[in-house]
Amino acid sequence: MLRSVSFDLWETLLTDTPELSRRQERLRLERMERVLVQRGFAQTAERIEEAYRHLWHRCLELYWSRDEDIACRVQIEHFLEALEIDPAMIDEASLAALEDVYASAAIEVLPSVVAGAHDVLAELRERGFRIGLISNTGRTPGYALREILDRLGLASSIDAMVFSNEHGACKPRRCAERWTSITTR
């Protein structure tokens, strides 16, 4: 008997239009530049944008193409390396500030809920199903995605959430195994 249903996040429950994605990117870049300048690391907006693009390709090359994921902090370290700044020379507060502005852009420029998502989740809950979410994260880590889901009124309908940056593996790898162990408890 079927007891649970799991969902992917992007293009299933949430979606980002190209305009929303551009707004999130602009917010990330502007705030990362502000953090760097405030800490004495004057960088041009052009160099920061170049490092941001390099970061995406670096993560794709080292991790995502192998169905592996990494913590947001490691992404920030790769970003700094692309700017030729040694992450070991940056104090914890500055690293945390960079991580925060990097991770929180999608919280401030919220994605859209896919039409019908609220209704489907409500119907499944009404029928007694447990609801799970398995999602790759990219630039927005699991803790930020949980807040987004909460703000959009979806989190209360989901019993278990597994995010690739917290688990270390991208779908379709071991996340499915983790979800199976969560739902059979």
3D structure, described in words:
There is one protein chain. By secondary structure, the chain is mainly alpha-helical. It folds into 2 domains: 4-16 and 111-183, Rossmann fold; 18-108. 54% of the residues lie in helices and 10% in strands. The protein is built from 8 helices and 5 strands; from the N terminus they run E-E-H-H-H-H-E-H-E-H-E-H-H. The chain has helices spanning 18-38, 45-62, 72-82, 92-108, 117-126, 142-151, 164-167, 175-183; strands at residues 4-7, 14-15, 112-113, 130-135, 160-163. Strands 1-4-5 form a 3-stranded parallel sheet, sandwiched between helices. Helix 1 (18-38) crosses helix 2 and helix 3 packs across helix 4. The longest helix has 21 residues, at 18-38. The chain starts with a strand and ends with a helix. The model is unreliable at 178-185 (pLDDT under 50).
Write the layout of secondary structure elements.
Elements lengths: L3 E4 L6 E2 L2 H21 L6 H18 L9 H11 L9 H17 L3 E2 L3 H10 L3 E6 L6 H10 L8 E4 H4 L7 H9 L2
Parallel strand pairs: 1-4, 4-5
Antiparallel strand pairs: 2-3
Helix pairs in contact: 1-2, 1-4, 2-3, 3-4, 4-6
Quick summary:
The chain has 185 residues and is mainly alpha-helical.
